[in-house]
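Same chain as my last thread, 235 residues:
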Amino acid sequence: MHAMGDPAALAGMLPFDSIGLYEQPKPRFIFKMPRVVPDQKAKFESDDLFKRLSRESEVRYTGYRDRPPEERQMRFTAGCREGHTEIAFISTGTNLQLVFDHSPYNNRGCDFQKENGKVHIVSRFIMNGVCVRWRGSIDLEKLEGIGCLELDEERAAIEDAALRDQIERYNQRLRDFEDKQRAYREHGEELRAHSHVHAQRFHQSRQPPHGANPTHPHAAHPVHIKPHSQGALIS
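reply #2:
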C-alpha cells in the first residue's frame, strides 16, 4: 500500500509523448530501457496494484492542500482547463499525476458539460510498464469523486509494436557488430598465415647448397698450394 504523498506510484508513470529537449546525446550502440513490458495485458490482470486500482473507488484532489477550500476549487478547475491535475485513491493512498487533452474543441480528456457540477476526466499514461487509462469524475465543489484504471489496449498495441521494432534494431546492431568482429578475426588470421609462409621462404633461401659441409663454409672451394722452391745444396 502506498502512503499519501509516496512518489512510488509516480515513479512508474510515463507520458506517451515524452519531451527529450534536455536529453544528453547517447552512444549509438545502446539499448534503451523499454517503456512497456512484453505482455502488458497479463501484468495488468495479475499485478496486485492494478487489481486494486482497476476497481472503481473513491478519489480526491490532492493539490494545494495547505490552501483554503475556495482557492483549491479555483486551482483545480484552472488545472483541469490547462490539462493536468493531481488525484489520489483514498483506499490505497496511490497518487497519480494526470495529464489529458484540454482542447476546447473536443471533450476526450476533460469534459465539464457531461454532468452539472462535475468534471469527467480521461487520462492516458504508462504505469509500471503497462499502458493504462484513468477514467473518472470529480465534484468541483467537494473535490472528491470516483475513478479507476483501465487497460488501454489501443495504446498498448502501439507500444508493443514499438518495443518489437526496438528489439529488432538492437539485435541487428548486434549481428552487424559480430559480423565485423568475425571479418576482423579472419583478416588477422590471413595476415598471420601469409607472414608465416613468407618467413619460411626467407629461412629456406638462407640455407647452404645441397652437399656442402655446413661446419666448413669454404670446404667446397678448391685449395691451391704453391710448391716449395728448390734451393742449392751446400756441402
